[in-house]
Design brief:
- By secondary structure, the protein is mainly alpha-helical.
- It folds into 2 domains: about 80 residues; about 120 residues, HAD superfamily/HAD-like (Rossmann fold, 3-Layer(aba) Sandwich).
- Helices cover about 50% and strands about 10% of the residues.
- The protein contains 9 helices and 5 strands.
- The strands form 2 sheets. Strands 3-4-5 form a 3-stranded parallel sheet, covered by helices on one side. Strands 1-2 form a two-stranded parallel ribbon.
- Helix 2 runs antiparallel to helix 3, helix 3 crosses helix 4 and helix 8 crosses helix 9.
Length: about 210
Amino acid sequence: MEQKELKKMGHDLPMEVINQAFLQADEYFYNECARLPLIERSKEEKSQVFYTHQHLVQKYCGLKPTRESVLHIIGCYQEQCTTQVIFEDAAETLRILREKSLKIGLISNSDGDISPLLTQTGLDQLLDVVITSAQFNVTKPNAGIFQIALNKLGISKDQALYVGDQIEIDMAGAENAGIDALLIDRQDYYKNTPYSRINDMRQVLDYI
């Protein structure tokens, strides 16, 4: 989406450049969330974090971001959030895991109600437990939110495998909780990461 919208503004950038810009901007985002989780911020403070993140993305792409260009792309992301779809490899993997009678949970740092989104994507039919920051007032990478999920699922940390796509939030959080984890890295961003890495959710089945 970023590439498409930037192109409309006259900036035809390769995805490699945009991906690298996101990696740099994400460092700011993760550090901000570590300093003060989004759930503990006011609406205005959250908006400022997202604004600064998008400003940095455009800056690291070598552009000169304007207020209009930043707000336009933020608006596009907000609109996209209302029409999310699940990756087919993820849906297929979750269905196979359910057929194996394995328990499946979701841990989200969302500060709002995600049940409409889960219903829209069909995830509500594939999950046994959904844990959000909005429910329990704790966010990843805090080990507490992982422990809540374990308790709800009725399993120990040694029986769990966590899959996430963010190193500072997901991998660090699972590590804090003593849970084995896999980094889902669809675009090969993190080739040098020390964490176990997969490119397709179906690869999770190799670790079960």
